[in-house]
Write the C-alpha coordinates for this entry.
Amino acid sequence: MQVYVTPLGEEETCVALISDNPRMRLEDAWSELPELAARVRDADPRGADRGGVTVSRRLSRLYRGNVILTGDASGSVDAITGEGLCLSFRQAIALAESLASGRLNVFQAAHRSLLKEAHAMSRLLAWLGRHGNVRRRALQVLSRDPGLFTRFLAKHVGQSSAIEFAATGLSFGRQFLSA
Ligand SMILES: Cc1cc2nc3c(=O)[nH]c(=O)nc-3n(C[C@H](O)[C@H](O)[C@H](O)COP(=O)(O)OP(=O)(O)OC[C@H]3O[C@@H](n4cnc5c(N)ncnc54)[C@H](O)[C@@H]3O)c2cc1C
Protein backbone atom coordinates (compact mmCIF):
# COMPACT_ATOMS: atom_id res chain seq x y z
CA MET A 1 0.00 0.00 0.00
CA GLN A 2 0.95 3.63 -0.38
CA VAL A 3 -0.37 6.73 1.35
CA TYR A 4 -0.33 10.10 -0.40
CA VAL A 5 -0.52 13.38 1.50
CA THR A 6 -1.55 16.42 -0.53
CA PRO A 7 -2.13 19.95 0.78
CA LEU A 8 -5.52 21.26 -0.38
CA GLY A 9 -5.56 24.63 1.35
CA GLU A 10 -4.59 26.46 4.53
CA GLU A 11 -6.64 24.18 6.75
CA GLU A 12 -7.28 21.09 4.67
CA THR A 13 -5.08 18.16 3.67
CA CYS A 14 -5.98 15.18 1.52
CA VAL A 15 -4.74 11.78 2.70
CA ALA A 16 -5.26 8.98 0.17
CA LEU A 17 -4.47 5.30 0.44
CA ILE A 18 -3.85 3.01 -2.51
CA SER A 19 -3.73 -0.70 -1.81
CA ASP A 20 -4.11 -4.00 -3.64
CA ASN A 21 -6.25 -5.14 -0.71
CA PRO A 22 -9.80 -3.84 -1.32
CA ARG A 23 -10.68 -4.22 2.38
CA MET A 24 -7.84 -2.03 3.61
CA ARG A 25 -8.78 1.35 5.13
CA LEU A 26 -6.69 4.31 6.26
CA GLU A 27 -6.76 3.31 9.93
CA ASP A 28 -5.19 -0.05 8.95
CA ALA A 29 -2.18 1.82 7.55
CA TRP A 30 -1.31 3.82 10.69
CA SER A 31 0.69 1.05 12.36
CA GLU A 32 3.10 1.03 9.40
CA LEU A 33 3.26 4.83 9.19
CA PRO A 34 3.64 6.03 12.79
CA GLU A 35 5.09 9.45 11.87
CA LEU A 36 2.16 10.29 9.59
CA ALA A 37 -0.32 8.80 12.08
CA ALA A 38 1.02 11.13 14.80
CA ARG A 39 0.57 14.16 12.52
CA VAL A 40 -3.02 13.44 11.52
CA ARG A 41 -4.26 11.83 14.73
CA ASP A 42 -5.95 15.01 15.99
CA ALA A 43 -7.21 16.17 12.59
CA ASP A 44 -10.88 16.80 12.16
CA PRO A 45 -12.17 14.64 9.23
CA ARG A 46 -14.13 16.68 6.68
CA GLY A 47 -16.11 13.72 5.37
CA ALA A 48 -16.41 9.96 5.18
CA ASP A 49 -13.73 7.87 3.43
CA ARG A 50 -14.44 7.44 -0.27
CA GLY A 51 -13.07 4.72 -2.48
CA GLY A 52 -12.61 3.87 -6.14
CA VAL A 53 -11.34 1.06 -8.31
CA THR A 54 -8.23 1.69 -10.37
CA VAL A 55 -7.42 -0.23 -13.56
CA SER A 56 -4.95 -0.12 -16.45
CA ARG A 57 -6.79 -0.33 -19.74
CA ARG A 58 -5.99 0.26 -23.39
CA LEU A 59 -8.48 0.57 -26.26
CA SER A 60 -7.71 -0.26 -29.87
CA ARG A 61 -9.88 2.57 -31.20
CA LEU A 62 -10.87 5.94 -29.74
CA TYR A 63 -13.48 7.28 -32.13
CA ARG A 64 -16.32 6.19 -34.36
CA GLY A 65 -18.79 8.41 -36.16
CA ASN A 66 -19.21 11.56 -34.13
CA VAL A 67 -18.18 9.98 -30.81
CA ILE A 68 -14.62 10.49 -29.49
CA LEU A 69 -13.32 9.11 -26.21
CA THR A 70 -10.85 10.95 -24.01
CA GLY A 71 -9.77 10.87 -20.33
CA ASP A 72 -10.25 7.61 -18.44
CA ALA A 73 -12.95 6.50 -20.89
CA SER A 74 -10.25 6.32 -23.58
CA GLY A 75 -7.97 4.06 -21.52
CA SER A 76 -6.41 4.50 -18.11
CA VAL A 77 -3.29 3.83 -16.10
CA ASP A 78 -3.11 2.46 -12.58
CA ALA A 79 -3.56 5.23 -9.97
CA ILE A 80 -0.14 4.29 -8.57
CA THR A 81 1.39 6.43 -11.34
CA GLY A 82 -0.47 9.59 -10.22
CA GLU A 83 -0.79 10.38 -13.92
CA GLY A 84 -4.52 10.23 -14.69
CA LEU A 85 -5.27 13.96 -14.74
CA CYS A 86 -2.03 14.96 -16.44
CA LEU A 87 -2.72 12.43 -19.22
CA SER A 88 -6.28 13.69 -19.59
CA PHE A 89 -5.10 17.28 -20.04
CA ARG A 90 -2.48 16.27 -22.59
CA GLN A 91 -5.06 14.19 -24.46
CA ALA A 92 -7.42 17.17 -24.48
CA ILE A 93 -4.74 19.37 -26.09
CA ALA A 94 -3.99 16.67 -28.70
CA LEU A 95 -7.72 16.28 -29.37
CA ALA A 96 -8.22 20.03 -29.83
CA GLU A 97 -5.35 20.11 -32.34
CA SER A 98 -6.70 17.15 -34.33
CA LEU A 99 -10.23 18.55 -34.35
CA ALA A 100 -8.81 21.79 -35.76
CA SER A 101 -7.05 19.89 -38.56
CA GLY A 102 -9.95 17.43 -39.00
CA ARG A 103 -7.60 14.43 -38.67
CA LEU A 104 -8.69 12.24 -35.77
CA ASN A 105 -6.10 9.59 -36.60
CA VAL A 106 -3.49 12.13 -35.43
CA PHE A 107 -5.26 12.27 -32.05
CA GLN A 108 -5.28 8.49 -31.83
CA ALA A 109 -1.54 8.28 -32.57
CA ALA A 110 -0.71 11.05 -30.04
CA HIS A 111 -2.93 9.37 -27.45
CA ARG A 112 -1.19 6.02 -27.98
CA SER A 113 2.23 7.53 -27.46
CA LEU A 114 1.11 9.48 -24.35
CA LEU A 115 -0.30 6.32 -22.77
CA LYS A 116 2.68 4.13 -23.67
CA GLU A 117 5.14 5.63 -21.16
CA ALA A 118 2.53 5.86 -18.42
CA HIS A 119 1.69 2.17 -18.92
CA ALA A 120 5.38 1.24 -18.74
CA MET A 121 5.69 3.14 -15.43
CA SER A 122 2.49 1.56 -14.13
CA ARG A 123 3.81 -1.94 -14.92
CA LEU A 124 7.17 -1.14 -13.30
CA LEU A 125 5.59 0.21 -10.10
CA ALA A 126 3.13 -2.69 -9.83
CA TRP A 127 6.04 -5.11 -10.36
CA LEU A 128 8.04 -3.39 -7.60
CA GLY A 129 4.96 -3.70 -5.41
CA ARG A 130 5.12 -7.48 -5.78
CA HIS A 131 8.90 -7.79 -5.20
CA GLY A 132 9.64 -6.56 -1.69
CA ASN A 133 13.43 -7.04 -1.75
CA VAL A 134 13.96 -5.14 -4.99
CA ARG A 135 11.52 -2.42 -3.86
CA ARG A 136 13.28 -1.91 -0.52
CA ARG A 137 16.66 -1.68 -2.21
CA ALA A 138 15.35 0.74 -4.86
CA LEU A 139 13.76 2.98 -2.22
CA GLN A 140 16.99 2.88 -0.21
CA VAL A 141 18.94 4.17 -3.24
CA LEU A 142 16.34 6.88 -3.99
CA SER A 143 16.22 8.10 -0.39
CA ARG A 144 20.03 8.27 -0.25
CA ASP A 145 20.13 10.25 -3.50
CA PRO A 146 16.91 12.31 -3.78
CA GLY A 147 18.31 13.98 -6.93
CA LEU A 148 17.88 10.63 -8.70
CA PHE A 149 14.23 10.52 -7.70
CA THR A 150 13.73 14.08 -8.96
CA ARG A 151 15.26 13.15 -12.33
CA PHE A 152 13.11 10.00 -12.65
CA LEU A 153 10.07 12.10 -11.82
CA ALA A 154 11.04 14.65 -14.50
CA LYS A 155 11.10 11.83 -17.06
CA HIS A 156 7.78 10.51 -15.80
CA VAL A 157 6.08 13.88 -16.39
CA GLY A 158 7.78 14.36 -19.78
CA GLN A 159 10.28 17.02 -18.68
CA SER A 160 13.57 15.33 -19.50
CA SER A 161 15.22 13.87 -22.58
CA ALA A 162 15.98 10.23 -23.40
CA ILE A 163 19.71 10.93 -22.90
CA GLU A 164 19.16 12.43 -19.44
CA PHE A 165 16.97 9.45 -18.58
CA ALA A 166 19.64 6.98 -19.76
CA ALA A 167 22.26 8.75 -17.59
CA THR A 168 19.89 8.67 -14.59
CA GLY A 169 19.15 4.97 -15.19
CA LEU A 170 22.87 4.20 -15.32
CA SER A 171 23.58 6.06 -12.09
CA PHE A 172 20.62 4.33 -10.41
CA GLY A 173 21.81 0.91 -11.65
CA ARG A 174 25.32 1.46 -10.26
CA GLN A 175 24.00 2.51 -6.85
CA PHE A 176 21.42 -0.29 -6.82
CA LEU A 177 24.08 -2.95 -7.43
CA SER A 178 26.35 -1.60 -4.72
CA ALA A 179 23.52 -1.00 -2.18
C1 LIG B 1 -7.96 5.69 -6.24
C2 LIG B 1 -7.55 6.61 -7.35
C3 LIG B 1 -6.52 7.52 -7.15
C4 LIG B 1 -6.11 8.38 -8.17
N1 LIG B 1 -5.09 9.24 -7.94
C5 LIG B 1 -4.72 10.11 -8.90
C6 LIG B 1 -3.68 11.06 -8.66
O1 LIG B 1 -3.08 11.13 -7.59
N2 LIG B 1 -3.39 11.93 -9.68
C7 LIG B 1 -4.03 11.90 -10.87
O2 LIG B 1 -3.72 12.70 -11.73
N3 LIG B 1 -5.01 10.99 -11.12
C8 LIG B 1 -5.37 10.11 -10.17
N4 LIG B 1 -6.36 9.20 -10.43
C9 LIG B 1 -6.95 9.14 -11.76
C10 LIG B 1 -7.96 10.27 -12.01
O3 LIG B 1 -8.92 10.26 -10.98
C11 LIG B 1 -8.62 10.03 -13.36
O4 LIG B 1 -7.63 9.85 -14.35
C12 LIG B 1 -9.50 11.21 -13.75
O5 LIG B 1 -10.49 11.41 -12.77
C13 LIG B 1 -10.14 10.94 -15.12
O6 LIG B 1 -11.05 11.98 -15.39
P1 LIG B 1 -12.25 11.72 -16.39
O7 LIG B 1 -12.97 13.01 -16.48
O8 LIG B 1 -11.73 11.11 -17.65
O9 LIG B 1 -13.15 10.59 -15.73
P2 LIG B 1 -13.93 10.63 -14.33
O10 LIG B 1 -13.26 11.54 -13.35
O11 LIG B 1 -14.17 9.20 -13.98
O12 LIG B 1 -15.31 11.34 -14.73
C14 LIG B 1 -16.32 10.64 -15.42
C15 LIG B 1 -17.64 11.18 -14.92
O13 LIG B 1 -18.68 10.66 -15.73
C16 LIG B 1 -19.76 10.27 -14.88
N5 LIG B 1 -20.56 9.27 -15.61
C17 LIG B 1 -20.27 7.97 -15.83
N6 LIG B 1 -21.25 7.39 -16.54
C18 LIG B 1 -22.17 8.35 -16.78
C19 LIG B 1 -23.41 8.37 -17.48
N7 LIG B 1 -23.89 7.28 -18.08
N8 LIG B 1 -24.09 9.53 -17.54
C20 LIG B 1 -23.61 10.66 -16.95
N9 LIG B 1 -22.43 10.70 -16.27
C21 LIG B 1 -21.73 9.56 -16.19
C22 LIG B 1 -19.09 9.74 -13.64
O14 LIG B 1 -19.97 9.78 -12.54
C23 LIG B 1 -17.93 10.73 -13.47
O15 LIG B 1 -18.30 11.86 -12.73
C24 LIG B 1 -6.76 8.32 -9.42
C25 LIG B 1 -7.82 7.41 -9.63
C26 LIG B 1 -8.21 6.57 -8.61
C27 LIG B 1 -9.34 5.60 -8.86
In short: The chain has a mean pLDDT of 91.
